[in-house]
Amino acid sequence: MEQIRRKIKKALENHSEGLMAKDIARRIGYTKTQVNSVLYSCPDDFSMNNYVWKNKSRNDKSDKVFRVDTIPIKKKPDGVRYHYYNCNPHRRLTDDCVIRAISAMTGDSWEDVLKALVDTSIETGYFINTPECYGVYLESLGYIKRKQPTTLGGKKVKFKDFVMNYDGHAFCHCGKGHVTYVADNSTWDIWDVSDEIVGVYWSIDE
User: Fold this and answer.
1) Which of 161, 169, 149 is nearest to 195 (CA)?
2) Same domain, residue pair 107 and 145
3) Which of 145, 90, 113 is nearest to 32 (CA)?
4) pLDDT along the chain (206 residues), means of 10
5) DSSP H helical ranges for the chain
């Protein structure tokens, strides 16, 4: 990850305008998912040349911005374990948790994730909100399915405890019938899942 971080900084320093994540990925020879993983991990490293890492809406005409393809994720103060996050383009509060969590984790737009899941659904015969569908899609992106975390005594773990000790980025099963996104020692969702149980999860780095 450190090598990717250095290459991203160099790409931005050598460019007089803001770049989208996919453009940086093409320039440095990595995938957009890998680039976004680094951006989410250390956003403060990528505010340079008057270009700040943040989302640029379609109505924003400013050119002094380093663009990414989703709403930016910024670290909250220590002790904050939940952050409201909704990348639904219409800001709907609906049953799109799978799309939202994948979009947050990969940096792909809500629309692109939906299209990719539909394609995977057609290939597998399973609907987009089932593990048999989105699990296949996540694994195609290089994410690995991890076992449900437990304490040393074998007890299941709640999200408020899990995020305190988990420093990565993950797509997590949450209670029954829900998935959520974990990053920067916080959950990112449209409601606070702190007291829910962590199930299996997908991540790239452990």
Assistant:
1) 161
2) yes
3) 113
4) 76 66 78 71 55 41 36 54 88 93 90 96 96 96 94 90 89 94 90 94 84
5) 2-13, 21-28, 32-41, 97-106, 110-124, 131-140, 159-165
Helix (H, G, I), strand (E, B) or coil at 133: helix
Tell me the two tokens of residue 77: 């103060």
Give the three-state DSSP class for 3: helix
Give how many domains the chain has, as a whole number.
2
Q: Do 55 and 89 lie in a common domain?
A: no
Is 112 among the domain residues?
A: yes
**What tokens does 17 get?**
């305008």
Is the entire prediction scored with pTM above 0.90? Answer: no
Q: Are residues 36 and 123 in the same domain?
A: no
Q: How far apart are CA 116 and CA 121, in angstroms?
A: 9
